[in-house]
Amino acid sequence: MSWVVAVASSCVSVSPNWPAHRAGAVLTIDLAAIAANYCLLDARTPGALCAAVVKSDAYGLGAAQVAPVLEQAGARHFFVAHVDEGLALRQWVSPSAHITVLHGARPEAAEDCVRSGLRPVLNSLEQVSQLQALADKLGRPLDAALQLDTGMSRFGLSGADVRTLAQEPERLRGISLSLIMSHLACADTPENPANAEQLKTLQAYAAQLPKAPLSLAASSGIFLGEAFHQSLVRPGAALYGIAPNTSGPNPLASVVKLQAHILQIRQLSKGDRVGYGLTWQADGPRRVATIATGYADGFARQGAGKGCAWFGGQRLPILGRISMDSMTVDISHIPEGQIAADDTVDLLNASYGVDAVAEAEGTIGYEVLTSLGRRYHRVYENTEQNI
């Protein structure tokens, strides 16, 4: 599907090649808020480089639009998950920008990775050997980051692997280590002792390897304090407004707003039921609205129980199960005549963001944000970016 880009003096609108009025909902992305969040995080980490994680299409918000704004705000280092993401990102940032691929490169993609100036993260001894073989083939040292598993058992070299590299330094011949990194498992719970344990483990492992800058903190880790910042921090979700923890107010600016159109309004009588499975039943007269957003648009089918929409500051509880393309909300407390078909209700706004939706659905803001569908008409606000 082709995408049409329209440029205005202070607003960039990106949508499929049908007009906005054909879409069921409008997702507004505040690029100035993303830039402000980057600047806030950068200011909190004065002794470290502040990178920007734009994997999964900038957490679903559009790397093509977001990455240039982050670079204008000061980001020089970007992180993605896959080689293809890095290759796409290369066209949206300046040639001097540094792009790191968190998963490293599969053997067939390693040459494309390094020839495009992407830095692979080496997560295993096998990846170390593969990059060394490529360095021999190309006849030059190759830049790489090395990830160490400090307790999460997900990515990175184990303690035994680190000892192997320490005892056999020739395994790193032809590899120029420019970063040694790990990832915190419990950074969103600052009181968890695992955070300090992982920091100690990273420092102990790194002491056995060639000297290189260290990186441990992602979004939540930044708020654990200076000891966790090391040489480079890697915020991702925090750039997009997700709260770093639940221990206090969210210091980050809200980034997204989602407004869904009302498709139909109807009057219910006592005993009438709503939705698949008829799981909700009216206990008296109710007015309900069916709106044009469903689980295909990022709202979990079973997440309706505590979820809601908003209209004029009024909370509109979601009733019954969410369908693929729609959901039903209770508008009984909105006076008749104040709300009608084709009006919009808020599913995300500055007061009720992705973290609140996540709490209602029993998940995390990351999942909600990255699940927002591609059917929305997208509006990028507060930018002079010329796309």
TrEMBL record:
UniProt catalytic activity: L-alanine = D-alanine
The record, for Gene3D superfamilies, names: Alanine racemase, Lyase, Ornithine Decarboxylase, Chain A, domain 1
E.C. number: 5.1.1.1
Under CDD domains, the record lists: PLPDE_III_AR (cd00430)
Pathway(s) annotated for this protein in UniProt: Amino-acid biosynthesis; D-alanine biosynthesis; D-alanine from L-alanine: step 1/1
HAMAP family, per the entry: Ala_racemase (MF_01201)
Recorded family membership: Belongs to the alanine racemase family.
Q: Which SMART domains match?
A: Ala_racemase_C
Sum up the protein's function in the record's words: Catalyzes the interconversion of L-alanine and D-alanine. May also act on other amino acids.
Name of the protein in its database record: Alanine racemase
Q: Which UniProt keywords apply?
A: Isomerase, Pyridoxal phosphate
Cofactor(s) named in the record? pyridoxal 5'-phosphate
- According to the record, the segments passing through the membrane are none
All residue ranges annotated as the Alanine racemase C-terminal domain in the record: 255-381
Q: Where does substrate bind?
A: 154, 324
- Identify which residues the record assigns to the active site: 55, 276
* Annotated positions of the N6-(pyridoxal phosphate)lysine modification: 55
Extract the InterPro entries matched here: Ala_racemase, Ala_racemase/Decarboxylase_C, Ala_racemase_C, Ala_racemase_N, Ala_racemase_pyridoxalP-BS, PLP-binding_barrel
